[in-house]
Amino acid sequence: MVSLLRSLMVLRIHATHRWQNASKYTRRRWTFCGVTGFLTIFLFLYSLSNYGQQHIQRLKEIGSSYRQADYKPPVVDSTNGDEPPSWEKLRKWELDLPQHDLDLPYPEGRTGRYIYFRNQIQYLGWNNQLNEVLMNTFLAYKSKRTYVFQDYHWKVDYYPWPESQVKDWPLRTPANALISGPSVGGPWDPEDPAPRSVSDDWWDTVCPEKERRIINTREVKPAIMWENGEVIFNHWVKLLGEATDRCIEIQAADREEDGFPQVFDLFLWGSDRILPLWESFRDSPVSRLLGTSPIVEAAVAKNEYLFVPRGPRPSVPAARNPFDRMFAVHLRRGDYKDACLGFANWNSTFYSWNLLPFLPDRFINPPGYTWGTNTPENVEFFLKHCLPSDASIVEQVNNARSEYAAAGKPGEHRYLDVLFLLTNDKTSWVDGLKAMFKKHGWHTIVTTSDLELDPWEKDVGMAVDMEIARRAAVFLGNGWSSFTSNINHRRLVDGKEPISIRFY
Ligand SMILES: Nc1nc2c(ncn2[C@@H]2O[C@H](COP(=O)(O)OP(=O)(O)O)[C@@H](O)[C@H]2O)c(=O)[nH]1
Ligand SMILES: *[C@@H]1O[C@H](CO)[C@@H](O)[C@H](O)[C@H]1NC(C)=O
Ligand SMILES: [Mg+2]
């Protein structure tokens, strides 16, 4: 019950967050419709009047005199080409995937079995979607159905460009720009007969509306709402696997009924109920074959020279590969200034894979919490781990570096002298931190804003930072963050040691 109430509270925080975001967009749309409608009616009536007719005639004359004069169009490239990309070529590539072919034999083509999660989370952080994309793919795989992938739809606050530069709403990025692998249409293992994922555009062709069986989450979730992840997963596998319908679409229950109507929802990701799924998920082809997208790979390669060590020659043999000498630190700031207070006041645990009990820095929720609020000492304790001070960050990095070095085999030199500070902070705060690290003997320090990214790379900038942190020898992250958690997922699938995965 306590955990239920606690979860309800977490829901409220997240729901409010989401709702503010959604209503901002909705409000803009209604304002636009209202103003446009009013103007149209007004101009129509006006154009019928005598006065209006004269005015229109005058406008026509002005127009023709403009054409005659030496008229120059306004300068449009004032953004120096830094504009959101349209992803035209990648979209065409996705449309043309070879599995988008009705004539392919079973289990693909017109006789194949499909599952479309229309209830998948959108308009939230990329990583809140990513963990669900992967788990839904795993569910589709186990149910012997084709997974249908979708664009990522941005939460407006996280979009890398100001709203004034946006030409095309809603804000979205193709899935294949962000990741590669079976979740976005890539091949499975060579001997694996599983059907390749298709895009939601192709879903409309291969599963026309009249052939779809709709399952609303309200028909399924209540019975298993607070079960552990494995029970939830197996319940859905049975349902989707045994159903004879070729095309199944999962639809979301109303928000009043279920604040997060996903198959694997935020309540699950934000609790240790997710952990029983860890081993099977880690070893699944969905995790093993998850890849970095070509655009992200290219952005990392292009910027790798920044990480080539610049300090004095090490006194011990040190790796040639800069990533093997790198300590990456996720500095989750910006909206976390509020979010961390929320975590404290709702007694939130770490997020998802950050809760794995074999990782060295566990967060034990302190006693003393009461409904929706926490003691001042406890709030301070949460903030210490969620929004650490500069001095504390430097100290923890230096300690973790020593502990990592000490964990090496006899004769093994674990020499780390490259620091990558990845952050969503948009102020100059990180420059001060950089100076502190310099004083502590770090010679090569690179931050998110030092990376040079073209508009395509900028659109997937979070995935670029994640890829660098994935490859780093040691990674220190924020335990409440799904961004940190998904980096850790890949690090563990890569076989990186627990001592290289740290939290504040
Ligand atoms: N480039 C970059 N973006 C970040 C970083 N931290 C947060 N963000 C942005 O903020 C969003 C946070 O949402 P999400 O990915 O769901 O992670 P969470 O909110 O930390 O659980 C990310 O998707 C990015 O857009 C960072 O270190 N680097
Ligand atoms: C706070 O969270 C922890 C971890 O989930 C839990 O064990 C504890 O019971 C919670 N405290 C209260 C008072 O709900
Ligand atoms: Mg998030």
UniProtKB/TrEMBL annotation:
It comes from the Eukaryota. The chain crosses the membrane at residues 30-48. Keywords: Membrane, Transmembrane, Transmembrane helix. This is Uncharacterized protein. It comes from Gymnopilus junonius (Spectacular rustgill mushroom).
